[in-house]
Amino acid sequence: MIRLLSVLVLILLILTLIRSFLVRLFGPPSERQRVPSRPPRQKVAGRMMKDPQCGMYVAADLAIQARTRDSLLYFCSTECRDLYAKARLEEAKR
Ligand SMILES: [Zn+2]
User: Fold this and answer.
1) pLDDT (0 to 100) of residue 36
2) Distance from residue 72's CA to the centre of ligand 1 (Å)
3) DSSP type of residue 27
4) How confident is the model at residue 20 (pLDDT cuts 50, 70, 90)?
5) What separation in Å is there between the alpha carbon of 93 and the centre of ligand 1?
6) Which pLDDT belongs to residue 33?
7) Cα(83) to centroid of ligand 1, in Å?
8) pLDDT at 11
9) Residue 60 C-alpha to ligand 1 middle, in angstroms?
10) What is the full DSSP assignment across 29-79?
11) How far, in Å, from the CA of 29 to the mean position of ligand 1?
12) What ranges do the domains of the chain cover?
């Protein structure tokens, strides 16, 4: 009787092992490929431009751009752009 029980336990153990082996081989890909997959970030390649208002560097692709008569300026925010434009206007008035 005890012998039969130990055989059953052994079979169960083997089945469990086979199952986990099969799952590892053909299991859901999320188990295996989860590690390196990050959400693709917006690629911020390219130039870093200096915000002339606050002095911070911003990626040209993401910056607020403002064209002046002779150059293209890059700002970190619309606030900086507006402040800069205002300052230029004040300067021009003088
Ligand atoms: Zn700024």
Assistant:
1) 64
2) 15
3) S
4) confident
5) 23
6) 57
7) 9
8) 76
9) 13
10) HHHHHTTT-PPPPPP--S-EEE-TTT--EEETTTSEEEE-SS-EEEESSHH
11) 44
12) 2-33, 48-93
- Residue 81 Cα to ligand 1 midpoint, Å, equals 7
Q: Quick check: 53 and 64 in contact, CB under 8 A?
A: no
d(CA 91, CA 50): 21
- The residues near 80 (Cβ < 8 Å, ≥ 6 apart) are 51, 53, 54, 64
Distance CA 82, CA 67 (A): 12
Whether 53 contacts 83, CB under 8 Å:
yes
What's the 67 CA to ligand 1 centre distance in angstroms? 16
Give tens-digit pLDDT for 52-79: 999 999 999 999 999 988 889 999 999 9
Ligand 1 center to 79 CA (angstroms): 7
pTM confidence score: 0.50
Å from CA of 7 to ligand 1 middle: 75
